Every structure is written in structure tokens, then in C-alpha cells.
Amino acid sequence: MSQLKRNTAAKKSKGQTQGDVLVEKLPLRLKSHEEELARDIQRESAKVWNTVMTIHRLFWFKYGIWIDEATMKEFLKGRFSVHSQDVQAIIENYYECWERTKKLHEEGHTEWRYPWRLKRFFTSTWKVTGITVEDGYLRLSNGWKKPPLKIKLPARLKGLEIKQVQLVWHRNEYWLHIAVDKPALEKVQGEAVAAVDPGEVHALTLTDGREALVISGRHLRSLRRLRNKTLKKFQKAISRTKKGSDRRKKLLAAKYRFLNWIGVQISHTEHAVTKMAVNWSLQRGVKKVYIGDPQGVREQDCGRHHNQRMSQWSFGRLRDLLEYKLKRHGITLEKIEERGTSGTCPICGKYTKQAGRVYRCGDRDCGFGGVHRDVIGATGILDLAVNGRFTFGRKLPETVSYVRPAVLTPMPGHKKKKAA
Ligand SMILES: [Zn+2]
User: Fold this and answer.
1) In the chain, at which end, N or C, are there fewer CB atoms within 10 A of the end residue's CB?
2) Which residues contact 196 (CB under 8 A, 6 or more apart)?
3) d(C-alpha 337, C-alpha 327), whole Å
4) How far is the CA of 114 from the centre of ligand 1 (A)?
């Protein structure tokens, strides 16, 4: 295992501007000569990575010295036929990776390997001076030996300040990761707190104690199911073909097209879901949101199917997205252990394992029920966060609204049928 982290430059520049740096991911439809150029650039970037790694290791083995980053930059200046910023970015990337591994080793995690693998292709990076925008085209210069790479800039990025561009190979396609400076968003007014309970049937359930919002997760779940089912079919068909055959190549290409398509659908839905949660919090002046951390729930062994479902729930991604979007409005997201929150009765405090979606207390004398389980869960998280424990007879939200994320979903293969 070795660790690699990209986009460091994009993050580093964040502090310097008023706005927020966002990374937009753009799949490229390249003509064959452009694709050849892209491959060529990535090959040269790989050469940089390989050289840095080889020199760094060699000096250690021969002389017992680890060359530092500044010396490496000085030494490799002007030696490659890519933009000088790309060379610098790769060196920075290498050192960050190396230092992180070193730290892990010092903490006893010696299973992480230092960078060691020689690469054939590597992500290329352009920073401000290598990037120009002309007539709606993005022009990425490649030094004097190679022509620039020209890409039509999508309308949504026009007029934005571009901080960094990376050429990435992902799922059988070239992509541009474009870091843009977006204007800062309106900051929240108010000091209220709320809790959010992430789930599968309901993607997110929020409450501030008075009101609750339940955002449906059905669309997300059906997309994930479609993804898994179709992927299985592809794998089966691919396994029946010969390595290197035309049939296999065609199937692989179709598989990647499908993955890209469904990936966009899922991410659109995740954006819609988190946007609803952010707007709700903004309108109620929520400054801090507590989130149930299902780590404990996920670690239990619940059988193969259940485990698969839980892992595909991709709670982590939705949480990261939510955290990021809230942060842009000055709202913080804080994790809290959620064990027992959806099963503990808000009235008598007795714990009952819940089978249905509607809460039912198992205590005969209490008999509380009729409120949605996830709403109980969210109020439980809020209760734990605010009071440090479950309080009995706590007040439940007076209004509960149910919403579905509104997403446009074109049919699979809608545009791409011809290519298949
Ligand atoms: Zn009860």
C-alpha cells in the first residue's frame, strides 16, 4: 500500500482568497490527436514522478541522505518537457506522500509503503501561469516543445477564476479536475442547534427540536441497486470473454460508460439531498448540526447482504458533502455516537429494538408510538448532544415534513447509444 493524495495545491491556496475553492470534474471527449497529446503529457509527468522517486531513494541507499524538497526542485528545474509548474506539483505531491508515510511509520503503522512503484502515466497539473482562457476555451500550455491542450470551457465555469487544472485518467477516460474560486456564500445568522440522522430509507432526517425534515433516500437507493445489478451483469459477461478480444474491449468500454453515467446520477442526487438539508438549516438559523455516527452500527456483523447494503449506503460521501456545504455557510457539523438513539423511547426512556419504520415503545405501561423512527433518532441525537444523555418525556417536533430530492434522470444510454 502506498498513500497518494492529489489536489493539495487547490487546498493550499484556499486561505488566500475570499471565496471558496471548489474542484469541478469534467470528463473529456477528445479527438484522437488530442488523446495522443494527453497521453504524452501524462507520460512525461510519470517520468517526473519516477525520477524524483529514484533520486530520492538512490541518495538514501548510497549516501544515507534524504534530499529535501527545495533541493529536488532546484535540481530538476528545466529538465522535462512539461510545464515547470507540473514538475513542481509532482515533487510536492511526492514529498507530501513520503512525509505522510514517514509519520505513519513513526506511529508504528509500518504496513504503509513508501512510494516505490514506477508509473507509466501520472496526473498532470497546471497552475495559474500555465492556464489561459481564450474565446471560451481553456488553454493549457506544455512548454515550448509541445502544443497546448485546448478544451472548451463549460458554461458553468465561465467568468470564474481558475486556480488549478489537473489532467486525470479515470474509468477509461481523461478528465479535467478544475479548481475554481467561487464567491463566498451567505453566512448563517443565528445560534440554533440541530441534529441529523443519516439513513438508508431516509437519506437524512433533521430536527431542531420544534420541526423535523425527512428527506427520502429511495431514489439514491434505487440508483445504487441499479448500479450493483448492472455491474454484476457486466462482470459475468466479461468473465466469459477472452482476454484481449474485441468482445471484451467492447464490454469494458460499455461498463465504464455505464459507471460514469450512474456516477453522475448518484452524485446529482447526493447534491440535491444535501442542498435541502443545508437550506433547511440556514432558514432556521442553525449554527451547529450534530450528526449520528453509524460507525458502531456498521461494524457489527449483520450478515452478508445487510453488510453489503450498509457499505453501499456510502454514508461517508454524503456526510462529507453535507459537511462541506454547511461549512460554506458557516455551519459546523459535529459527530456524535448514535448507538441507541432510534430505539430509546423519548417518553419512558426504555430501549426497544425497532422492526418497523414507525416507532413503537415495547413498554406496556408507556405504549408510546406513532412517530417516525428516524425522527425519534434525530431527536435522540439532539438530546444526547445538548443534554449529554437521554431525557425522559422529552418534547417531540410538532411538525414533520417529508420531501424527495428533485432530480432529472435521463434514461440510461440516452445520448450514448450510438457509441455502444
Ligand atoms: Zn416508552
Assistant:
1) N
2) 204, 205, 206, 277, 289, 290, 291, 292, 322, 333, 378, 381
3) 21
4) 55
Q: What is the pLDDT of residue 157?
A: 86
Q: Cα of 318 to ligand 1 centre, how many Å?
A: 32
Cα distance between residue 133 and residue 34, in whole Å: 18
352 CA to middle of ligand 1, Å? 9
What is the end-to-end Cα distance of the chain in Å, rounded? 36
| Cα(385) to centroid(ligand 1), Å | 21
Beta strands 332-337 and 286-293, pairing class:
parallel
Q: Evaluate whether 24 touches 157 at the Cβ level (below 8 Å).
A: yes
Residue ranges of the chain with pLDDT lower than 70?
1-19, 294-315, 407-420
Cα 333 to middle of ligand 1, angstroms: 30
- Given a contact cutoff of 8 angstroms between Cβ atoms, the answer to whether 143 and 81 are in contact is yes
Listing DSSP states for 120-157 in one string gives S---EEEEGGGEEEETTEEEE--TTTSPPEEEEPPGGG
Phi first, then psi: give them for residue 107, nearest 5 degrees. -85, 5
Rounded Cα distance, 157 and 171, in Å: 23
- Cα of 93 vs centre of ligand 1, distance in Å, is 55
Read off the DSSP letter of residue 160: S
Name residue 162's amino acid: I
- Note the pLDDT of residue 298: 43
- Locate all alpha helices (DSSP H) within 284-337, ordered by sequence: 295-299, 304-312, 315-328
Confirm if 167 and 42 have CB atoms less than 8 A apart: yes
DSSP state of 2: B
pLDDT at 301: 41
Task: Give the pLDDT of residue 299.
Answer: 41
Grid cell of 303 as nine digits: 450478515
Q: How many angstroms is it from 359 CA to the middle of ligand 1?
A: 10
Q: Coil, helix or strand for 262?
A: helix
Residue 43 Cα distances to 47, 48, 118, 123, 175, angstroms: 6, 9, 11, 9, 15
Cα of 392 vs centre of ligand 1, distance in Å, is: 9
C-alpha dihedral, 314 to 333 to 322 to 196, nearest 10°: 70
Distance between CA atoms of 185 and 286, rounded to whole angstroms? Answer: 15
If DSSP codes are grouped into helix, strand and coil, which group holds residue 212? strand
